[in-house]
Specification:
Keywords: Plastid, Transit peptide. It is found in: Plastid. Its main location: plastid. The two termini are 61 Å apart. Helix content is 19%, strand content 31%. The protein has two domains: 2-74, no CATH class; 80-286, Lipocalin, CATH 2.40.128. By secondary structure, it is α+β, with helices and mostly antiparallel strands. The chain has an eight-stranded antiparallel barrel with strand order 4-5-6-7-8-10-11-12. Strands 1-2-3 form a three-stranded antiparallel beta sheet, with no helix packed on it. Helix 2 (80-98) packs antiparallel against helix 3. The chain has helices spanning 30-46, 80-98, 109-126, and strands at 55-57, 63-66, 71-74, 140-147, 170-180, 185-194, 203-215, 220-232, 242-244, 259-267, 271-276, 281-286. The protein is globular.
Length: 287
């Protein structure tokens, strides 16, 4: 019964204390056995849920396993429900931080810091992402709800792109990523509204930037650009799609903008966080 000393660390009701156990309490003499039996009876009165010979629950989340000769304690397993609650709370915090920022186009420096901090908390709670065995989690159509690079006020983010505002009458609509893990297709789909001279209505188009992707590591993805297709929508939806011609190799800029890499830093069934090769933070939700 020497292991009963472990109970000394537990809070006792009404400021009571456990019976003291002498060093000789581990012997098997009749007097010691009778004393140990009395001690056990007193412990049962203090902790009615404590019983000899079966599992039982004690205060402060400790789990007791006892037999006629010993009492041991183990820490309870981590509660899955509590982790799910934490993840849910951090996801809500991130979504709240990026809401109302027009996918990052309206983000201030303070907004960028808040979004970055909320994303790091969720990434830390979710742990490392390993796509080598869970590539199917990427499958689907994802909606972009935030990009830190859009705060640069260009539609290309950190890469070259048309500016927004008064210089060009371009209004950014929804942005999606369509990923097919079987064909390795990785399409960035951008909805745009192009201004037209009065009294003509704006022209609505959807631009699809088609890529192929490959996994290069446990969580890093490389995409290679193939072509851009533009399709009118709205009043001009009857027009056929148009594939934009690619520039000859001799006319392309020195930097290869046809490919890029990014890392998936958080992923579950409905939320994805990525960090690009140009320090771009992106947040997606399943669409």
């Amino acid at each position: 019964m020497a292991s009963l000393l472990h109970l000394a660390s537990l809070p006792l009701p009404h400021h009571q204390s456990l019976p003291s156990l002498s060093p000789s309490s581990s012997s098997n003499t009749p007097s010691t056995s009778a004393s140990a039996t009395a001690d056990f009876s007193r412990i049962q009165k203090l902790y009615p849920s404590f019983h000899r010979g079966r599992n039982c629950s004690l205060k402060k989340g400790l789990i007791c396993r006892s037999s006629s000769s010993e009492v041991t304690f183990i820490e309870p397993p981590e509660s899955k429900a509590s982790k799910d609650d934490l993840i849910g709370s951090l996801k809500l915090k991130l979504l709240s931080a990026v809401s109302g920022l027009n996918r990052g186009l309206a983000a201030s420096e303070d907004d960028l810091r808040k979004a970055e901090a909320a994303a790091k908390e969720l990434e830390s709670a979710g742990g490392l992402v390993d796509l080598s065995g869970d590539l199917d989690k990427l499958q689907g159509r994802w909606k972009l709800i935030y990009s830190s690079a859009f705060s640069s006020r260009t539609l290309g983010g950190s890469r070259p792109g048309p500016p927004t505002g008064r210089l060009l009458p371009i209004t950014l609509g929804q942005v999606f990523q369509r990923i097919d893990i079987f064909s390795k297709d990785f399409d960035n789909i951008v909805e745009l509204e192009l201004g037209a001279p009065w009294p003509l209505p704006p022209i609505e188009v959807t631009a699809t930037l088609a890529h192929k992707f490959e996994l290069i590591g446990s969580s890093k993805i490389k995409i290679t650009f193939e072509k851009t297709t533009v399709k009118t929508t709205g009043n001009l939806s009857q027009l056929p799609p148009l594939d934009l011609p690619r520039l000859p190799d001799s006319l392309r800029p020195p930097s290869d903008t046809r490919s890029g890499e990014f890392e998936v830093t958080y992923l579950d069934s409905d939320t994805r966080i990525t960090r690009g090769d140009r320090d771009e933070l992106r947040v997606f939700v399943i669409s």
